[in-house]
Amino acid sequence: MPSYEFFNITHPAKYVTHVEINRPSKLNAFKEPMWQELQKVFDSLSTDPSVRAIILTGAGEKAFTAGLDTKDAAEHGPLSENSSAGTTEDTARKATVLRRHIHNFQNCVTAIERCEKPVVCVLHGFAYGLAVDMSSACDVRICAADTKFCVKEVDIGIAADVGTLTRLPKVVGDYGWVKDVSLSARIFGAEEALRVGLVSGVHESKEAAVRAATSWATLVAEKSPVAVQGTKRILDYSRDHGVADGLHYTAVWNSAMLQTVDMMEAMKSGWTKKKPTFEKL
Fold first, then answer.
1. What CATH number has the domain spanning 225-272?
2. What pLDDT does residue 269 have?
């Protein structure tokens, strides 16, 4: 694995990779080089045959991430005096620069969702703004009991623009609740997140949540990577398409998966009572 400036990469179990956001002195707040690096991390892990499941956490005790580093964005972002958007008064040209910037940011966060491997996110402490964008791009979310969530963007004068407003309603299935937290930017806790389905489990501490995530990722990594990656892809496709389209996509996908040796290995384990092992994909 390459080394990264803002992320720690470890391997707590076979075929399991732990990605840790590593800027705890700034509450893991993101500046532009971090979200560019985030994309590189997940694009690399997506095609690494030694990775079958990924855990995403934040370093330190205070925050998963407090969101966007607004001070850095003001000094170095597209609206700063030195940017190409900041040096023109022409509305169309300024909008073009900003649109490209937003699409770039969106693409970096979408790298989590686009990753072929399932990603479990462990939230703790402050989980503001970008934390919700990132976690809603993950496949599974769990949290510590001290987690404080907030869709923060209206408090800094913008609509959340890198995933929350698109993905969060599909994650929780409750547009009324999503409008509640997105329009008010109110802080809500772990139990409310569990009640609406934003997280699938609440644990007493960050350490306990990381252990639970590692256990889940290890279990997933023991399965056929063909089956796991196919299941993730079909679920994501079906979320965004109708039932007939989803069924057709599943049939096309499984027409290949039904020919794999993984299926025979898994079926044989039922009568041999031996745990199956699967080749890298």
1. 1.10.12.10
2. 77
